[in-house]
Amino acid sequence: ITLTTTSLACGAVTTIRVGNSGGRAFNYTATAGGATTVLTGGSGTVSPGGNATLTASTLPLGKGTITLAASGADNSPKVISASC
């Protein structure tokens, strides 16, 4: 799993690209942690060499995380956090 971002923007929308540099497809699930974090595109499949897009937002003065897990993928799980 490769990600295009390592933190969430406070009070704004963050686009997260989930990449697959491996040789086989993987299924991923992303979950939001914290009452102030909202996530769209929380699950799917990424083909070899492909990527998927998630959108996350955190309210101002909020704290939260996005945890992305993919069984069988290297570097899983990944956690992206915000502390505003």
Describe the fold and architecture:
The chain has 84 residues and is mostly beta strands. The protein has no helices and 8 strands. It has strands at 2-3, 13-19, 26-33, 37-40, 43-46, 51-58, 63-69, 78-83. The protein has a 4-stranded antiparallel beta sheet with strand order 1-2-6-4, with no helix packed on it. A hairpin with an 8-residue loop joins β7 (63-69) and β8. The radius of gyration is 12 Å and the shape is elongated. The termini are far apart.
Please count the beta strands (DSSP E, at least 2 residues each): 8
Structural class: mainly beta
Percent of residues in helices comes to under 10%
Q: What order do the strands of the largest sheet run in, or round the barrel if closed?
A: 1-2-6-4
State the helix count: 0
Low-confidence stretches: none
Distance between the termini: 26 Å
Please tell me what the overall shape is: elongated
Rg over C-alpha atoms, rounded to the nearest angstrom: 12 Å
Could you spell the SSE succession in H and E letters?
EEEEEEEE
What is the residue-mean pLDDT, rounded to a whole number?
90
Estimated share of beta-strand residues:
over 45%
Largest sheet: 4 strands, antiparallel
